[in-house]
């Protein structure tokens, strides 16, 4: 329930609930085009505010267009991969619309302060996910669960959060819960999520991981400050509707954007994971292999 915090208006992008995300679970063979995806998201939500100047709407639209063109040009997605690509982008677009609408309708969001978050980082495959999971067990800490990062606005006011089951379906459809993937890196709707997924709605660097899109990677190379601003906004909203303890964050990528991270979180308590380099490199190669296999799209 939302009674713990500041309840968002039910007109704030939540009126259609889970139905907004239904198209994400359907196959798609369409050529990827930003304007088509945007129109589809607007139709199912009944919303059309993409953030304006504050949330850099013009840049967002541009980068989404570059991404779609780059996927078509260089990603070489399979038939299944095309459907899964649509799922990822459509979910992000619906959630961005619903979040911006809910943020406007929820009082006190801009007054939320993110105080002294605990931030973990380290080179990829250094054990940051495992340690983040351990830290998440402390009731004094608060993490962003995967379903919150992907679908920040609740679907209803029920006792059971419908987002958990819905996002699990989306993850299953995307193939991230395939045993070949989860034996290397855990994916699950209710698991603690890392910061790059809290930044996804800004259309930033996450997508370089999913697809071979060098043109897009170059286009968003300057978006790190914007991605952190988007993440902070997300955290403010999540904290406003469900106040809890100190934020515990993590992402290997923070180690490569150290200055921007410290600007975004000036009072953060930071720890860095270390692991034998030989083991770390072997694990990193194993992580990427399943996503390159045909059966995963």
Structural description of this entry:
By secondary structure, the protein is mainly α. It has a single domain, classed as P-loop containing nucleotide triphosphate hydrolases (Rossmann fold, 3-Layer(aba) Sandwich). Helix content is 48%, strand content 5%. It is built from 13 helices and four strands. The protein has helices at 34-45, 57-75, 79-105, 128-135, 146-150, 162-174, 179-182, 195-198, 207-210, 214-219, 224-241, 258-264, 277-292; strands at 118-121, 141-142, 246-250, 269-272. Strands 2-3-1-4 form a four-stranded parallel beta sheet, with helices on one face. Helix 1 (34-45) crosses helix 3 (79-105). The longest helix is centred in the N-terminal third of the chain and has 27 residues, at 79-105. The radius of gyration is 18 Å and the shape is globular.
